[in-house]
Amino acid sequence: MTELGMEIKKAMKEKEEQREGGLLGGVAEEIREIEWPAFNKVLGTTGVVLGVIAGSSVVLLTVNAVLAEISDRVFAGRGVQDFFG
């Protein structure tokens, strides 16, 4: 390998090593720059989300129960074959 080729290879290797260290350093720097919300705000937002999920579940289960009851009364004792036979 020529002297120029060896210098290029050495420079590329050094640049790659700097890039790897730079990546981790860059990640750490970005993490330090993040403005994290206050714990109480996170707790409150999480409570709201869980409340909405619980409320939606109650509403959907109630609608399902009402529709199931209506379906049982409308189609009482009838199977699918009774409609096509």
From TrEMBL:
Gene3D superfamilies, sorted: Preprotein translocase secy subunit
Top-level taxon in the UniProt lineage: Eukaryota
Upper taxonomic lineage: Eukaryota, Viridiplantae, Streptophyta, Embryophyta, Tracheophyta
Record-given protein name: Preprotein translocase subunit SECE1
InterPro entries: SECE1-like, SecE_sf
Cellular component GO terms, alphabetical: chloroplast thylakoid membrane
Transmembrane segments: 48-68
Record keywords, A-Z: Membrane, Transmembrane, Transmembrane helix
